[in-house]
Amino acid sequence: MHIVVLLKQTFDTEEKIRIREGAIDEDGVKFIINPYDEYAVEEAIRLRELHGGQVTAVTVGTERSVEALRTALAMGADEAALIAPPAEDADEAAVSKLLAAYLRSRAFDLVLGGHFSVDRGSGQVAIRVAQLLDLPHTGAVTKLDVDVAAGRATATRDAEGDDEIVETPLPACFTAQQGLNEPRYPTLPGIMKAKKKPLARYTAEDLGLSEAELASPTRVVETFLPPPRQAGRLIRGDAAEQARELVRALREEAKLL
What we know:
The structure is a single chain. Helices cover 28% and strands 26% of the residues. With 257 residues, the protein is an alpha/beta fold.
């Protein structure tokens, strides 16, 4: 069984976001594997330990993203691939086309990814890849059982506070939700082994994609922080007076009515 994990390198969740000239300031920032993608890496390794096979971690990113791939290899992935983006601001459409092109030339049984990334939060890439490859897709998975012999998988997914059980044929794409597992920490032997594991590099040209095909249909115009939270107000008076003042404040000050 071959499992491919789609991952992304993101800001450490403990980092303070700073904005400079309308863009996020990355100077001195610590980067990690997107936490939801960590669940995907862990689940892939557990499935390989149970059924045998191979785990490949792949990302679209700059050379900096090698660190995230090495972490996945140290956790237990067998090999990794880094795909160079056509531009640093490549959006989800361009990234998914690159990943789909990479997967088209490879045999695989499962594609795993995170439910969404903690930086952009769109939750689009894995779904787009599934659509481009005509794969069944199940998102927000909290439990995954695979029957290799039958070529089927049964997933329990988070459905807005309830559970939904989905059975699908393989190959298929699944995205990991919090609660699927508890990701392991890379051990020192794992870190040492990761340095010797295969890490391939690809460009769009290697994958047969032109610059025109990867033109991003969206772009970030400006990034800004939310306004500072203001102190609360205490509305005085009897119930009727409080209600009138609240309605007035919501209509005239907050512009919510």
